[in-house]
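EI: anyone free to look at a 186-residue chain?
SC: sure, send it
EI:
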Amino acid sequence: MRKDTVLALTILALANAMLAQDLAALNVALPSIERDLDVDLTTAQWVVNAYLLIYGVTIVTAARLADEIGRRRMFLIGAGVFAGASLLAGVAANVSWLIPARALMGIGAGLMLPAIAGMGYAVVPRDKAAVAGAIVIGGYGVGMALGPVAGGALTEFLGWRWIQFVNVPFAILVILGVRGLIPADT
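SC: here you go
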């Protein structure tokens, strides 16, 4: 594979890792969110549930929209929403702010996920599709594995809000990477 193709697949794997890491990391931080925002566990769990519900509902529609308006465009919209909502979640003053911010993050993630896989397969020849899938989808697995460790470290040393803040530079990186490495008509 060409160097630019490998870089494109790497940036897409990083995007998948970002989505998975965010989800896995936040579960570790729920006790800190409970204490910091003075809520019970049931309420704190809605911080994760709101994200997951909206994320799951958005994926199918986003896949169809990506086919209509382009995977790259759908990804860039989703990544922008995800980054902005991550910032909002990080500065949330209370759980009534945090839960909707996380739901908005779920929309961004749901818009991104099907576009990531589609772009990964689009940048390689058909005979390399399995390799592309392994790299791009493997990024999600890496993110799920690293998420609890990253979440624990961020929560312990910087506070739970940093689980949200760390998404912003990663989202900017993947936005720039996709803009530079994935053809506009993808």
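EI: The helical segments are 3-37, 41-69, 71-90, 95-122, 129-157, 161-165, 167-181.
SC: 👍
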